[in-house]
Amino acid sequence: MRLEYSMPHFVMLRAGDFGVALSTHPGDFEKKGEPKGIGMIPHFTTPNMDEFTARLKKNEVSWLRAPIRESFGIEAFILDPDGYQWAILAPLEP
């Protein structure tokens, strides 16, 4: 894995086409309940947010925040069956 970029509360690591970002900054969006594991929020990348979103909806995944375009890419927050928060990121093309 190589470091792609970092900020004080966020780091993006990449291995080929796969990326993992880690953040210690909780989202400031409206949440449904209190998710577990808020100390560190793993972000996993996807090359196509629309396809990934459709797959999650088909499987009835719980959403904390639907995909929104941010300065670094399109980001969404979901909950796993145990109530842990995960972020999905479709990075912007350079």
Count helical runs: 1
Named CATH topology: 2,3-Dihydroxybiphenyl 1,2-Dioxygenase, domain 1
Strand order of the largest sheet: 1-2-3-4-7-6-5
Query: Span from first to last CA?
Result: 19 Å
Q: Examine the secondary-structure arrangement and name the CATH architecture.
A: Roll
- Name the average pLDDT: 80
Strand percentage: over 45%
| Low-pLDDT ranges | none
H-E order: EEEEHEEE
Strand count, sense and barrel status of the largest sheet are: 7 strands, mixed
Bulk shape: globular
Summing up helix and strand content along with how strands pair, one would put the structural category as mainly beta
Number of DSSP-assigned strands: 7
Number of separate domains? 1
Helix content: 10-25%
Write the CATH homologous superfamily.
2,3-Dihydroxybiphenyl 1,2-Dioxygenase, domain 1
- Radius of gyration equals 13 Å
CATH class: Alpha Beta
Describe the structure.
With 94 residues, the chain is mainly β. It is built from one helix and seven strands, in the order E-E-E-E-H-E-E-E. The protein has one helix at 49-58, and strands at residues 2-7, 10-15, 18-23, 41-45, 62-70, 73-79, 85-91. A seven-stranded mixed beta sheet has the order 1-2-3-4-7-6-5, covered by helices on one side. Strand 2 and strand 3 form a beta hairpin. It starts with a strand and ends with a strand. The model has no long low-confidence stretch (mean pLDDT 80).
